[in-house]
Every structure is written in C-alpha cells, then in structure tokens.
Amino acid sequence: SVQETLYPSEYIADLLIKLAQSPLSEKYEPLRQSAWLAAGTVVRGFASKTQDLFLAHPATRQQKEKFVRIFMQHFRNVESTYEKILAIKALGNAGLDLSVYELVQLIQDPRQPLAIRTEAVDALRLLKDVMPRKIQKVLLPVYMNRQNQPELRMAALYRIMHTLPEEPVLAHIVAQMEKESNQHVAAFTYQVIRQFAKSTNPCYQQLSVRCSKVLLFTRYQPQEQILSTYSQLPLFHSEMLSGVQIDFAAIFEKNAYLPKQLQASLESVFGGNWNKYFAQVGFSQQNFEQVIVKALQKLSFYGKQSDSIRARRVNTGVKMLQEIVKKMNIRPRAQTSNIHNAHAIFYLRYKEMDNIVLPLDMETLDSLIEKYVKNGEIDIKSFLSFFINDSDFELHRALFVYEAVRRIPTTIGVPLTISGKIPTILSITGKMSFELQKLGARAILDIIPSVASTHVTEMRFWSPMFEQGVKSLQSARFYTPLKLEMTAELKKNTLEISHKLVVPENKKTIVSVHTRPVTFIRVPSENGENETDEKTIFHPQLQMTSEEVDRQYDVLGLKINVLGNILSQWTLPKVFMTQQDFEYTHVSKNRPAEFVARLNIGNLEKTDLSEIKFNKIFEKEFDLENTESENRREFFHKMIRQIQSEQGWKNFVSFKLEAPQQFYMNTELRTVCDQSVRICKIELDWRRAPVFEENKEWTLRSELLAARPQMPTSLRQLREQPHREVQLSLNAKWGSSRKNEVVINAQLGQSVEQKKNVRNIEREFNGIPEYELLIKAARLNQIDLVSKYDFTPETEYNFARLFDLVKAYNFWTVSEKLVENEERRVSLQLIVEPMSRQYVNMTLQTPQQQVELKNMRIPRVALPTIAYRAIDNKIWKKTGASCNVDQSEVSTFDNVIFRAPLTNCYSLVAKDCSEEPTFAVLAKKMNKNSEELMVKVNRQSDVVIIEKTEENFLVKIDGKKISRTQFENYDLEMIGDNLIVIRLPQGEVSFDGYNVKTNLPLVASSQLCGLCGNNDGERDNEFMTAENYETEDLEEFHRSYLLKEEECEVENDRLSEKKNYRNKWNRAETKEEKDYEQDESEETTEKQLVKKTLVKEFSHRVCFSLEPVTECPRGFEAEKNSTKKLRFTCMPRHSKNARRFLKEARDEILDLVDFPVSYVEAIQMPTACVAY
C-alpha cells in the first residue's frame, strides 16, 4: 500500500529506509525486503518522471545523489548475493537518472558475479524513456562482446529492444547475429527481432516496421532445438487504441537443466496509454542445478551394494576410463560454477515495481532437509504437520487498475481536462485446513472473496470561478461466500479424486452492476474546500428503451434472482448515457448447494484381446492402385490374430459431475490395448440430465478401434511390407429423444507421390543414412475417410454449414460438380504435400456433389511416421546435440564441420572429461586401406567393442563375444541389419560400420572433450586439445586425441598431409581454398567438365542436388553420358533459403551437407564433351 501512495515524499522515503535498517527488520526478513522495495518506489514517486503525471516540484540533484548513495552503500555493506540483488532492485524501483553511472560500473565490471551484472541490466528498465540513447550506448557493447556470458548478452539485448532502437542499432544487432558463434544468443536475437516485427501493439508500430526491414537482409535461420526464446501475444483493438500484450522470455545456457531467466509479463494499453509491465512474474538462477543435485543426494538412502558382480564390472569400466586419461594426458575440465554462490530468485513485479522477492539458496534447502528428512527418508508426519494446522488468512488490497489524465488547451481560454481511472478494492478472507485420512487426504478452503470496482470517465472545464464537467460511472460489485473441499483417496485399487464446491446456506451471493451519467459543478468556498453539486443526467428517449426486470432463473439447481432496469438494445453510447442498475442475488435456504466432481482412475489389469474385432474396416476407397489389396488385407488380419494371441491390458477412468436439483453428468472411458499399443479399443460413454427443451436423458456411446502397422527398421522392409497404413474405425451414437448415428472408417497412409519416392530411393543406403532416410520415407501423408450416417435434421444442417465454411476458406481454388452417389454416405481424401508439409489437396464426395480443393495453404504440420524409434529420433533432434564422425570428416556437437582423417589407431571421439568420467567413445579404421570403422565405448559398467563384418556386427563386452539375443542385457539395440545403438548414462551412440553418431541431451555436461568438441554452444572454442588449451592447428588438435597403443602403427604420412584437414566453419580458409581451386581450373582446358548444383523447380518447392552434377561448358556438347542416382533436398519456394540458394547456385556449388535428403532420382550426366 505504501508503494502506491498518491503523495510520495522524501520524508516517507527516509522513514522506510530507517525501518529497513532497524533491528526489527534485521530479525524479520519479509519486513526488511518490503521496506527496501517500498523505499525505492516512493523515491521514484517524488524524484523521477513518471508516465502520466509530471512533477510539481522536481527533485534536486542533491536529493537524487543522496538516495543513490544510500542504496549503493547498502549494496557494498552486505555480503550475500540475495542482499546485493535486493539493493539493486530497490535502486531499480527508484528509476533515478543519476543511478545509471553506478549501474554501468556494475554491468561492465567482470569481477562482479553474473547475477549482479544481469540484475543491474534489468534495473535500467525505468530509464528507457528518459535516456534511451544512453542505455543503447551502454548495453550494445555488452551484447556485441562475445567474451561476456551468453545470458548477460541476451539480457542486454532484451533491454535494448525496449528502448525502441533506430535502424542503425538494429543493423549492428543483426550483423552480430549472422556471425554469432553462440547458437543460443543468435537464436534468441532472431526470436526477439522477429516477434517485434510481427507485433500489433500500437506502441511498437514504428519499431515493428524497422525490425521487418532489417530481417529482410538476413539469411539466418535458428535451429529448432534451441530453447532460449522470446514470444509475444498481442491482443489489440486498433480503433480504440486499447488491448493487452502477454510477453514470455526464456534464457537458457547450454548444459543447464533450469533456465537462467524465465519471465512472463502482462502489458496493457487503454486509450493509447501504455502500462508497461502491468504485471510480471519472473525467475532467475545461477548454478542452482548443483543445489538441487546436492539436495537429492541428501534425500537418497544408500545401502550396501549386494551385487558384487555388478560392482566388479563398474570398477573395470572406471579403470579403463582412467587408463584412457593417463595415456592421452587428458586434463580434467574444471567445473567453472561455484555451489556456494548458487541461488535462485522468484520475483513479482506490478506496474514496473518489484514488490516481492523470494530467494532460494543452499542454506534454505539445508534447513528444510534437516527439518523434514530423517535418516535419508522424508518424514511424512513432520512434512504434513505444516498443513494439518488450521490457518486463517485475510487479504485486502486497494489499487488503480488504470489512471490517466490529459489536458488540452482550447480557443475559449480555459483548459479541457479528460481523465479516466478504475479504482478497485479487493478483499478475501477465509480459513484453510488439511487433514489426513486412512488412505488419503482432504483439504478444505472456506473463503469469502469480494471485489468492488468503478470505471470513471470524466471531462471538465476549469476556470478561476468554478469547475464544470460531466462524467460517466460504471461500477461492479461481486460478493460470494464459497467452500471448496478436495479429497484424494485410494479405494479398492482405484484412485478417487473428488472436488466439492459448496455455496453455504443462508448466505447471500451478490453480483451487481450500475451505470450512471453525471453532470457536476465545483465552486471553491472560503475555507478552501470545494463544494460539489452533482446531478444524474436523464435522457428521456434513452430511458424509454430500458425495461424493468424482476425475474428468477434456475441455473444448475441454483435459484438466481435478477432485479433492476436494463437496456433492451445495447450500444456503447447508450450504455454510457443511460442510468442502469441490475443485481444478481442467490440465497441457499434450508440447505447448502453442492457441486461435486469425482474422478476415478482404475489400475491396469490383464485381459484377453479377443474382444477387439476388426470387422468391415476396409472400404473400396482404401484399395491400392494395383492388385496388392487382397494380399494387404490378408497380411493385416494375420497380424491382428498374432497380436490377439498375446496378453492385453485394460484400464477404466470415470468422471461424475453432480449439481443441485438432480443435474448430473457421467463419463466413462474404457481402454483395451496390447502391451506395445499396436491395437487398441477405446469406449466412451457419456450421460447427462436433460436441459432446455430436452425431455429425456442425453447419451453418447462410442467405440474407436485403432491398429498401427509393423514398424520397419530398414528401407527394404518398408518397400516389401504389404500393409503400412494405420486403420481406424469409429462407431458413435448420441442424442436425447432422437439419436444421431455415424460409422466412420479411416485409413492413414501414403499418397501416390510419397510411394513413388519410396520406390525410387537408392538401395545402396545403409546404416545411419538409411535410417534417417527411412524416417522421412515412412511418413504418412494421406487420409482416406468413409462415413455412413443417420443424422437428425438439425445435426445435418450444422454439418452442411460447416461444409460451406470449408469451401469458402479457399474459394478461388474450389471446384465442384453434381454427382449421384450413395445416400447417407460421405468419403473424404486429404493429401498433405510431403516435402514442404504446408499444402493440402482435399476431395470430398457427398450424395449430391463432389468438391475438390487444390493447394490449400496450411501451417506447417508434423507428419506421423511408422519407422522404428522415429519418436526417439525426433526427440533427439528437438532436445539433443549430435556429433557425427566418419573416416575423414567430423561434425561436432556445436555444428562445426571439419576434415580430419581417422587412422588404424583409436581416436577419441567424445568423452566425459570431468573428474569422475562416465563414458568415452573411440573409433578407428579396421586397417589402413579399408573404409570400415571399429568403435569402442567405455562405460562405467563395461567396455563395448563393435566392428562390422561381411554378414553382421561382431560385438564384444569386456573382451567376451556376445550374440544378438543378449544385446538387451547390455543396453544395446539392433535397428535393422546395419545399425546398432549403444546406450550411455546420458545419451546414445549409433554405429553402422562407417559412421559413429553420438547423441547427447542439450543439458549434458559441458565438461566434454574429444574430436566432437565441448558441447558448450560456442563455435569459436571448439578445438581444445587433450591438455585443455586452444589451438588453431587441426593436426595438433587431432593428434592430441590419438590413442597410441602397441597393436597399432601410427600413420604419420596420412596425419601430416594438410589436404586431409579443413575447417569448414572458418570462412576465410574456405574462401582461400575456393579461390585456389578457381585459379587451377582456369589453367585447365575448356574441354574439362563443369560441375554445378542441379536445381529442380516445382510448383510449391525447389529442390537442390546434394552432390554436384557435371555439364559441358559453353560451346561443347556431350559425347558420352552416364546415369547416376542423386540425392535431392527440397524446401518451400517462398522460404528465404530457397531464394538465396537459387541465386548462389548460378555461380557456385552449394554446400548442403547439413540439409536432409528429400528424394533420390536417376540423372543422366556427360562423361566427355566435344566442340560443335
């Protein structure tokens, strides 16, 4: 309340600071925090320029320097991070222009902890309108300096954007984004500029135009798996210049489980008045993951390990990891974070002012663990005793949701003042209790919330003699006592969760709304007070359109009385200029009104699958284009019979809702599936009491059958599999007196174009390339649906209206013709373009007409795929980091690609280089002249060695050969015949004999080393040697991770050849090589073939060959031709990459190694040219 005082003064600020420094505040932390934050807010009220009100008596420079000195002195005197952050937040609340010098020193001081520097950046928020150029000048170098921590740079960028920068500043930011080595910073920058470019906030209109311009000149596209993001949800009415905007920002660091900063804010604009940070909640932390891990370790209860065999295996694995460290002279990567400085802070900000700060650190968690944990286990009684005690609470709050004043000079010599405000009073009182039951618990909340709010819009003329004007008052009042009971209990292997909402008996619930236009005159009296005379404006014509209301409604068993006078026809001018009063009241007499919701969840139980019957699931529209339909159906039914012979599982979930006056709604959901969820039957029953004009119970009975095909593990299996469609069958019947009935059979499969792509795929792909291509080839992009229905006239009319809306959605591409089809039968075919996944063709057959929609644009969709482990692969792409190594090239975790030759001695691919390593991945060539590789994976439990033979993989665990049937016991998995997966403690390694792909989660440790880099998000520091120093020499970097053993001979000639090394990330080196190659080519004869990227253009996409094709130079023609299968990658024609690559393909060969394969096609290319 003190923070929102209407008359702040220096005296009030001095009292609050004195209170914050008093012995009482030292003992009571919430009081000290509130006093410091309130002191900063009061200082802002009398010493800083606010948005709506100008200062009558501006503060002197001495006053500002005084409070800056007090806050900074408190910052220097305290020691804990929380206390320092609290001092900066108080200084930020003050918003003093002189504080910028102190804050700049903190931001630019690298000795300060990161949390302090980031908080100092945030403390500049109130100066964005006072000195935007100064803030840009200070924070732009912070953002541009790549030596600063990424989260500090992102916080600086976020603050710069809210100063509404001009185009030159935005150009600097975009230029930095394009050459940025840190992927998180680059992606966050792109998201921030892109969101501002799309904003409809009237206060961001000019900035939106500037951001749109600078984005037109950038080629950067963020990676999908980057978690750092910024998004806006603007909801505005342009004519009224009013609306709200919801902002969300998340700043992550590579290898961090928790976000460094997380915040959500609500901003509002009413009549062009901007309430920045109207409400905001946020979270910030530094190294708090270590606090959580340490707390979890204390919670764990470690017994003695009884499995001696496992213990020996763990010791063997650790010993092997230590030997690798010793042989390669690997220095452990030090942990840069300090657990003693670890902390987390939650804060609440209202109207740009920090109101509440909740700190968490190791000491806080230690005290909680000591209180509630005994002998490594949680003391349930001590923990629940905190809740069992009944507690009374009350909260009262007075605030102005919105307040603005505008003064306009007029030609008659007296000023016109227009003001608007919404004073609001909130109050809530109640009691909360918690009690334990035998097999459950119950919580009771008994509250009485009340709200009173008035919207006052006023226009007045001022003169020395009197003040006259009009105002419109709209007020609302809400008062309702409620009682909420929540119960969770275990009954007969069923979990029951119930919620009961009780409207107490003999207590009145009131919701009232009043509107009144008023004219007034204020005349100053002799004693200095104003005498006000007010009269309600009466408009006879408008009042005649209002009607008296005195009615009673029955809503879900509640008797609600409505009393008052309201307009019969509502328009905004009538509402403001007419007196209206109406009130909703409810009194529960004799007994309370109860609303009960019960959710019952049953346990999984074994069952027989014979009750799942797939009869008449195929339609004639589902037949294939050739004669394989019969074989496909036989294969499908054989697969169903095989699955039904296995064990199944069933589950039961019910939901019941009960209200007064015999209103009810019951829902039951029953599911039966096999263990691998290949076939399922889902039954849904829904019943409710009749409402409105219904005279019978409304019911819904539905049954859904679903069957998915076998999941192929190779392209050959996909091509040869007769049935690769998902089959669905729905039978539903619903209604009250008259029932609606529908039977729908659907098939999710592949379109003709997609099947053709599968058949044209090159058969030579094996291992990892084959599996990645399989995921795309196994996508299902076509839906065939046949429905037989029997609807009531009302339902049939509603579906007809919906059908008309679909046709109107893409009016210019709709074609329809009259046909005579079977009555009460509809068929639908929906085909999604498989490459761009942004265009749809739809064909709909009704009894009377056939409608076709071609090339309908939709948002990009994710197509399902039936490939084995496709979901796991998608999760790795979204939330993981991957490194791929073959015999000559490495693509690191941070997407740096360089050439480095593998030899017949093991090279360290990736390793946990912390002081307690958990894994190491090594690879080498089988022999000097072979292309096949051998991989060794050292885990804490064992050592896995895998090599590819002519027939299959040879796998050894701790030197012992194992068979394929034993793979699961050792965390190994075979995918098809040419790919094997080794699971790590965090992540996995895929190996196909030629490529080693290591997948790690984004939050994996940054203490990594090896050819795959350190996985820290930075591209500039990728080449750290085993001894932990950075080098630019790729050969030196490669040799440092070479494991020299007795059984291998180092290929020094191969290692020393400079042509075997190339850093594709180094743009200068790449350009020199291209220039050198171009000079060489000019010296050769013109008869030599010319290489270029082949471009194929289609209606909605453009495709580029991943390998260059040969062509004859100008003046020559092909003498001999050969056919070669080429891989193509496709992208939407309207995308930025497509436009850029079309231009670059004219002059150079495109490097598209990181782009996915879309399809494979045989191309004729010349092998010799002759002049013509």
Automatic annotation (TrEMBL):
InterPro entries: Lipid_transp_b-sht_shell, Lipovitellin_superhlx_dom, Vitellinogen_open_b-sht, Vitellogenin/Apolipophorin, Vitellogenin_N, VWF_type-D. PANTHER family: VITELLOGENIN-3-RELATED (PTHR23345:SF8), VITELLOGENIN-RELATED (PTHR23345). One of its GO terms (molecular function) is lipid transporter activity. GO terms for cellular component: extracellular region. It comes from the Eukaryota. Keywords: Disulfide bond, Secreted, Signal, Storage protein. The keyword Ubl conjugation does not apply. Residues 1-262 form the Vitellogenin domain. It is found in: Secreted. Precursor of the egg-yolk proteins that are sources of nutrients during embryonic development. Together with other vitellogenins, may play a role in modulating life-span, acting via induction of autophagy and lysosomal lipolysis. This is Vitellogenin. Residues 881-1049 form the VWFD domain. Its main location: secreted. It comes from Caenorhabditis japonica. SMART domains: DUF1943, VWD.
